[in-house]
Amino acid sequence: MAVEGMAAIGAAAAVGITAIATAYAQAKIGAAGIGALAEDDSLFGSVLILTALPETIVIFGLVVALIATGFI
Q1: How far apart are alpha carbons 50 and 27 in whole angstroms?
Q2: Fewest CB within 10 angstroms: 21, 47, 61, 65, which?
Q3: Which domain holds residue 8?
Q4: What is the pTM of this model?
Q5: Which among 30, 31, 26 has a CA at the least distance from the CA of 58?
């Protein structure tokens, strides 16, 4: 029972920490991206990709959480 609880805490930490890191990265990238778009509209595609890229960190955290809890 205690092992399952520790796995759940580890899974929550894996998703929570990666979500906070992603939010921080997207805030910085988004602010810089808006500044770049204000000067040059042709950068929209690059800014969109760079804004979406940190989301992969949360997906990796979710995979780690699923492995830790035994779903995968």
Answers
A1: 11
A2: 21
A3: 2-69
A4: 0.78
A5: 26
